[in-house]
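Hi C.,

You asked whether I'd gotten around to modeling the 440-residue construct. I have! Everything is below, sequence then structure, no commentary in between.
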Amino acid sequence: MLDLGFVRGNLELVEKKLRDRGADPAALLGDFPRIDRWRRAKITEQETLLARRNRITDEVSALKRTGKDASALIGEVGAIKLELENLQRTVAEAEDSLRGILSLIPNLTREEVPAGRDESANVEVKRWGTIPSFDFPPRPHWELGEKLGILDLERAAKISGARFAVYWGDGARLERALISFMLDQHTREHGYTEVLPPFMVNSKSLFGTGNLPKFGEDLFRCVDPEGFEPGQYRDNDHWLIPTAEVPVTNLYRDETLDEARLPISLTAYTPCFRSEAGSYGKDVRGIIRQHQFQKVELVKFTCPEDSDLEHEKLTRDAEAILETLQLPYRRMLLCTGDTGFSSAKTYDLEVWLPGQSLYREISSCSNFEAFQARRANIRYKSKAGKPAFVHTLNGSGLAVGRTWLAILENCQQADGTVRVPEALVPYMGGQRSIAPRAGV
């Protein structure tokens, strides 16, 4: 969330940044200027009344010391008290209105973020690896998975519906191997601390990371049917997490960290759950876009002056997984219109999929600056003793299912088998290839 004082003092800049994102400033800001002016006027009234009450109270004390009647002034103090209470409620209501407006305003993108409405304006920063060539037509992962007998979308649909998958045999083993490999790389090689958080969170946690209130329709909520109110939520509601970013970031909600502890680097494996609202008709084949998928997440808490450096390091940590697995990829700097709600700057890592002849996102690495920390009230105490908001960062390190399918498509062989990347062989019990298996 943006700082109230900053928005008030930089309204033109905020409006420009919103237009850069393709948003309508008037629709998002609404009555912000009028409510803010009215609130400050009421605060001035409060201060004037407080001064008047204090002056009258002194006069009452003086009258009492001389034995004179102070009843009229005492009555006036009582009337002022009631007026102050009404003003206090009025100011509180105005502040709630302003917080409601601010909660729906996205973060301001950095100056180096290219302007653009959609992904067509994203800028390629780097490209790594050699795109594999085949002496046969490469197949997409959904065909490979079916022929190998390791991916079953039909039975998943029977069990749960569309956008779910069942992995059999070596398919399940490969998924588990990838999770262990990623966690080991990030903890042993990159210095992260592993954490296993809850897979359900409350509404406050989702507000802290910017998922609520704007993106409630993209989430799965666990509710009492009798208490369900569409479009509304309560602090004690429980939701399935869309990413480990939510519980891990909220580990330090309403806490003040010592500067000496920063940066804090955490990694977590979790299943993730997304309703994919608004994605009807997109990626209907295979496992690109699922309601349930596995992910290894990277989350950092850092001092503001270090967040740019830590953003680059976090992105390199995610890239290192792709490089170790020998999967070709490119790094994209997202434009203003494609940058997520809470992010000030995002790199997407896109892996090459030869079965589809395109690059697809496999990780988003974002610097949220103080946006999430202000919503979740996560501060740090500097060496000078002054509290300030931390900067939060996160990225997929990586999306496990998309890594799984990238291995199938990039490592497919002419005989129908799939080569296991060398780095995963120990995690596959020495197994170096995945061959077709009998039907189940």
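If it helps when you're writing up: The two ends are 51 Å apart (CA to CA).

Thanks,
B.
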